[in-house]
């Protein structure tokens, strides 16, 4: 990794632009990582930029170089890219080969690619071709942007986000699981944004039965997530939203059940641990992230197993439920990264 002193404020500015471009592929690049690329001339002016727009389509470097005016001498330019250029043939040719062929002589990279098919090979190929390669500029920001991709590559499972709303007095529902409106309109809109940002959303049996949730995106633009439901005994009635076939849904159960339109049943034998089976299935489906909106039973199960990467808690400043309600999951964490007011609620985020 290159020492921070080797980068200028202008280098950082251009890499931030590349990170902003990468984010434009948030809904369309997955399961590939989001990648942005900026090409700057000898005076530091941007002469071309691009991002990975679509899974299976040209990578960010290809799009950025295509935007560079033909009269530009790329040997005098510097290329900023948020992830190590690929060195293997996948759905597209290697980007490292393209940079070499176009005569690029200077490359700055945010993150190394943890994919075993790349994993430093792109850097090696560029350096062996005589290209100056510097790495690690805004590395933390790059990892944050592609945290879902890094989780799959490094942990072998999707990025897990646990989310719940709790009352001022620490409950998530009324007596017997009776639904209670806890979150304010601002929080509800934010939750729909979160749903659009993640590939899948999960609930357990009790939440599905008590709340009859739709688990779709209604108050924010973006795609509906894949719905995941744990229903060991197939106790959900046919009229529930989660079985309506309106969007792809996977039900994890101990019983055999034939699939239907937009509805898949994955049978996990009672003798088998449920969570590893679910994670294996999600890996097979190439799901990179899961937003868990279940109740305390599911959240506590994941907390005890250490299967979480983020926790997002929306706590009402005014709503109280009182004794007899369903108690929110207990957190004894020191990793609080964000705490802010959100309308009539507070948002707490733990990593």
Automatic annotation (TrEMBL):
Cofactor: Zn(2+)
Keywords, ordered alphabetically: Hydrolase, Metal-binding, Multifunctional enzyme, NADP, Oxidoreductase, Riboflavin biosynthesis, Zinc
Binding sites annotated in the UniProt record for Zn(2+): 59, 86, 95
Cofactor note: Binds 1 zinc ion.
CDD domains for this protein: Riboflavin_deaminase-reductase
Reactions catalysed: 5-amino-6-(5-phospho-D-ribitylamino)uracil + NADP(+) = 5-amino-6-(5-phospho-D-ribosylamino)uracil + NADPH + H(+); 2,5-diamino-6-hydroxy-4-(5-phosphoribosylamino)-pyrimidine + H2O + H(+) = 5-amino-6-(5-phospho-D-ribosylamino)uracil + NH4(+)
Family annotation (Gene3D superfamilies): Cytidine Deaminase, domain 2, Dihydrofolate Reductase, subunit A
Top-level lineage group: Bacteria
Active site location: 61
InterPro entries: APOBEC/CMP_deaminase_Zn-bd, CMP_dCMP_dom, Cytidine_deaminase-like, DHFR-like_dom_sf, Eubact_RibD, RibDG_C, Riboflavin_Biosynth_HTPR
Residues covered by the CMP/dCMP-type deaminase domain: 9-134
Gene Ontology biological-process entries: riboflavin biosynthetic process
GO molecular function, one term: diaminohydroxyphosphoribosylaminopyrimidine deaminase activity
Annotated substrate binding sites: 215, 218, 293
SUPFAM superfamilies reported for this sequence: Cytidine deaminase-like, Dihydrofolate reductase-like
EC number: 3.5.4.26, 1.1.1.193
Pathway this chain belongs to: Cofactor biosynthesis; riboflavin biosynthesis; 5-amino-6-(D-ribitylamino)uracil from GTP: step 2/4; Cofactor biosynthesis; riboflavin biosynthesis; 5-amino-6-(D-ribitylamino)uracil from GTP: step 3/4
Function: Converts 2,5-diamino-6-(ribosylamino)-4(3h)-pyrimidinone 5'-phosphate into 5-amino-6-(ribosylamino)-2,4(1h,3h)-pyrimidinedione 5'-phosphate.
Name of this chain's protein: Riboflavin biosynthesis protein RibD
Organism this protein belongs to: Hymenobacter oligotrophus
């Amino acid at each position: 990794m290159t020492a921070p002193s080797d980068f200028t404020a202008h280098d950082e500015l251009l890499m931030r632009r590349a990170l902003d471009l990468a984010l434009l592929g948030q809904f369309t690049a997955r399961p590939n990582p989001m990648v942005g690329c900026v090409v700057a001339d000898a005076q530091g002016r941007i002469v071309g930029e691009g991002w990975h727009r679509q899974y299976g389509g040209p990578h960010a470097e290809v799009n950025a170089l295509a935007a560079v005016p033909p009269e530009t001498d790329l040997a005098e330019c510097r290329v900023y890219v948020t992830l190590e250029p690929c060195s293997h043939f996948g759905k597209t040719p290697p980007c490292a080969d393209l940079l070499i062929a176009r005569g690029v002589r200077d490359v700055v990279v945010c993150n190394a690619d943890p994919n075993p098919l790349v994993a430093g090979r792109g850097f090696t190929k560029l350096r062996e071709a005589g290209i100056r390669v510097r790495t690690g500029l805004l590395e933390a920001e790059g990892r944050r942007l592609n945290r879902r991709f890094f989780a799959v590559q490094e942990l072998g499972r999707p990025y897990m986000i646990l989310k719940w709303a709790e009352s001022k007095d620490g409950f998530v529902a009324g007596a017997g699981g009776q639904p209670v409106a806890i979150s304010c309109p601002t929080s509800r809109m934010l939750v729909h944004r979160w749903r659009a940002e993640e590939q899948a959303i999960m609930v357990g049996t009790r939440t599905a039965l008590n709340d009859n949730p739709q688990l779709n995106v209604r108050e924010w633009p973006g795609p509906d997530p894949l719905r995941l439901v744990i229903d060991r005994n197939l106790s959900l009635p046919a009229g529930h939203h989660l079985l309506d076939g309106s969007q792809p849904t996977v039900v994890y159960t101990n019983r055999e059940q034939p699939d239907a339109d937009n509805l898949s049943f994955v049978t996990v034998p009672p003798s088998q641990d449920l969570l590893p089976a679910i994670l294996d299935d999600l890996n097979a489906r190439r799901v990179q992230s899961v937003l868990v909106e279940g109740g305390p039973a599911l959240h506590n199960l994941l907390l005890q197993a250490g299967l979480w990467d983020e926790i997002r808690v929306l706590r009402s400043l005014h709503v109280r439920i009182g004794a007899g309600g369903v108690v929110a999951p207990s957190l004894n964490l020191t990793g609080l990264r964000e705490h802010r007011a959100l309308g009539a609620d507070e948002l707490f985020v733990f990593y």
